[in-house]
Amino acid sequence: MIKIYAPASIGNVGVGFDILGAAIKPINGELLGDCITIKLSKNFQLINKGIFSNQLPTNTEQNIVWKCWSKFCKIIQKNIPVSIILEKNLPSGSGLGSSACSIVATLVAINEIFNNPLNSKELLLLMGEVEGEISGSIHYDNVAPSYLGGLQLILEDSHIISQNIPNFTTWFWIVAWPGVKLSTASARKILPKKYTKDICVKNSRYLASFIHASYTQQSNLAARCMKELIAEPYRSKLLPNFFKNKEEIKKLGAISCGISGSGPTIFAVSENIKIAKKISLWLKNNYLKNKTGFVHICYIDTKGVRKIG
Ligand code: HSE
């Protein structure tokens, strides 16, 4: 029996739509992500557990875990039955890479129990494919960080899909999920098909500057470059009082604030733990819509997916 954990992630990281993703872990040591426990068995079996398991489809064949297993078996041309327990600890449609967590943990667990027939590139390609089927188009900015850890730059080059880039170890990432769902597929559908030259140039400049600032460890420059022109102007309407909240969070001392993935989770960045705690408290009091919502102060999770049992 093997138990695998895959961490939550912040897609886009406020500047690289579909191109940047960061794996995160709460500073209090809690695990923020999904777990898969797997063993070989006579028939395929799936048990859903965890605080958000009530959000999962009741039909097993609609569960991401089943989709991953069935695709994997097709690729290796062998039908190997397994028994799986999914601990769904992340809410779906949260913008924290919830589906990616399930996909990454499941595919890594299956690969491991089948004696690693797929290499890491093949696995990552498969993760992207499954994610694409769920969200409407392939994007690696959640699966890559959840799988590889750290801050990932999605290259989608013929040889390399994603590369780890330097992150700021002094940054605290505060994430707040309000307790309501927003489907990635619908948050992708509302985006324009075309952008003006001016937006393309500005967006390239911000992203290139952020990557430069990351490599040269210029924290303030990196934070100033975290501007998002592809999704934020359109998705902001789907989030409660986004610009007003952003302004308040900046007033509290955040050096950056944006939408995590496709939302409705928002993230804020601070280098100061006292400010991070203040922001966390403000978000708890002002951004959460119900008792299921949560706020976590996180570091970048550099490990990515891992065996925990
Ligand atoms: N890059 C993706 C998007 C992330 O913004 O649609 C989804 O979590």
From TrEMBL:
Signal peptide: none annotated. Its EC number is 2.7.1.39. Residues 63-150 form the GHMP kinase N-terminal domain. Residues 220-272 form the GHMP kinase C-terminal domain. It is found in: Cytoplasm. ATP binds at P91, S92, G93, S94, G95, L96, G97, S98, S99, A100, C101. This is Homoserine kinase. It comes from Buchnera aphidicola (Aphis fabae).
